[in-house]
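Pipeline run #58 for the internal structure catalog. This entry was flagged by the ingest filter as a single-chain record with no existing model, so it goes straight to prediction. Upstream metadata was stripped on purpose; only the residue string is passed forward. Reviewer on rotation: M.T. Logging verbosity set to normal.
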Amino acid sequence: MKMKKWLLTFAGLGVLGMLVLTYSYFAVERYASPLVFDDISKLPDTRVAVILGTSSNLVNGGKNQYFENRMNAATELYKSGKVEYLLVSGDNRQRNYNEPVAMQAALIKRGIAQDRIILDYAGFRTLDSMVRAKQVFGQSKFIVISQRFHNERAVYIAHHRGIDAVGFNAADVEIAAGFKTQLREVLARFKMMLDLYILKTEPHFLGDKIVIGE
């Protein structure tokens, strides 16, 4: 009888957990989906676009298609004339791992002038990237560049923090290659809800303000 009670309790908690995860995922999608775009012509002219970082290479040494597609999207957006500067925001906590520098190199290779690329070395998480773009780099309005699922979460965070952000969607990867990432996104949206509404999480670092264009 006692075992049955425990099993029912665990089953109930499991169902509750699934409901919370499902709600978090679709709440973000419902809010942010109208604010992320595949078509450049639908984007407003904006001074800065924020590119969200990821590793340039896979564990096996191959190219990370998420990274490549984001760099291609950023290049397309910049060359369209919609933005003046590209703020590359990523992780730089380890000596041999530097997402902003990798993004800068990839964009220069695609023909973007170095003085039009601004590096944010403390974009450790999406929340950090969004808040730092406003608090450190002085941008209360910008375009976010990543894949659609990531853009939705980034835009949701931005609007929660009083930032007028929209997203430009980089091409996604094949379903088989991106399955684990999509699964992690379910958990990431739940964690985001905790950060925004329960934990009131702030970026790891802020620091001195940096004026874009000087």
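catalog note: The mean pLDDT is 91.
catalog note: Residues 149 and 185 are 8 Å apart (CA to CA).
status: ready for reviewer M.T.
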